[in-house]
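Q: C-alpha cells for this one, please.
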Amino acid sequence: IVSSHIGSPNAIVDVSLHFQHSSHLPYIKRDHEFLEKFGCLVDKGTKYFYEGVIYAAEGFGDPPPDFGNDALSRNGWSVSETEDPLPDVWDEVFYDIPPRAPNPDEYQFIRLDQNKRFVNAWGHQETGADCNGFYIPFSNAILMTGTHSPRAHMRRKGIPEDEIEQHIPRLNKISDVVWEQWKSLVHEPGKLRFYAIDGVVNAVTSPLLDYLFRKKGSPQEMEWEDRLTFGLDTDEGKALFGTPNGVAVAWLLTNHHGALGRRDPRVSLFRGEGKRHMIWELIPEGEKSTFDHYVSKNGPIRK
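A: Here is the predicted structure, written as C-alpha cells:
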C-alpha cells in the first residue's frame, strides 16, 4: 500500500483506494525511454492527481471557489454565441457516446473573452484572454477549440510574475471559466463526463502526442477506432495529465469535486483533419468507460 502525506501533516491519503478491488497499485512495466523524455510530466501528472484530485475527493481539499452570481460578467468575461457546426472529425466520437450524436440544436459554440468591459470595470489593460468551445449538454460534454488564459497573456506581455495578480481578475483559470459557463447551461453540472480538445497545439503537449502516435505507428489520419487510450495507472496517462492540456482537467476535478464527485480520468488521442485531438472521459467511481464496448484496433485498453 502506498500512502502519501499531503497538505496537513495529519492528513494521510491511501492512494491505493483509487483502484477498486485492489489493496495495492498495479504493477506496470516502466518504459525507460519514455521516462527519460517525459519523466517530468509523469511526475507533474502524478502530483496533480494524487495531491489534487484524490486529495480533494477524499474530503481534505479546500471548498470549491465561490465566484458569486454573474461571475463571468463581473470578472470581465463577455459571452457570445455563434452557430458554428461541430467539426466533422468529432462526429464519429459523439456517435460512440450513447444514445446518439447531438443535433445542431443540442449544442452551442460559445466564445468567452475579456474585452474593453474588463478594462473599464477594472482599470486594467485588456488581457486578451479567450475561451472558445462547444457546450453539449445532450452528451454531457465540452469540446474546447481554443483557450488562452489571462495569466498566460500577461506573461507574454512581459509582466513580472509577482505582479500578474494585479492585472487579472479573480476568475482567471480556464477550468473555472468553463465550469461557470457550463453551470449556466445545465440543471445538473455534476453530470459532466467528457472534456475534449480540438486541435492540440500546445508546445509542451504536442511533442508528447507526436511521440505516442509515432511509437504506436498511428497514421496521420486516424479513424476513431484507431485511437490511443490511457488511464492514470500508466505513465503515459500521468504524463498527459501533467501537460497544460491535462491540468485543466485536474483543476476542474479538484476545484469542483463537490459537484463532480470522485472520478477516474481516462484520455483518448487521435489525429484527423491535420490536427491532434484529445478527449478526457471523467468516469464516475464504480462505473465503466462509455467506450469500453468499442474495441480499438490497438488492442485492449490498459486499466
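A few notes: The beta strands are 3-5, 12-14, 77-82, 108-114, 130-136, 141-148, 194-198, 228-231, 263-272, 275-284. The mean pLDDT is 84.
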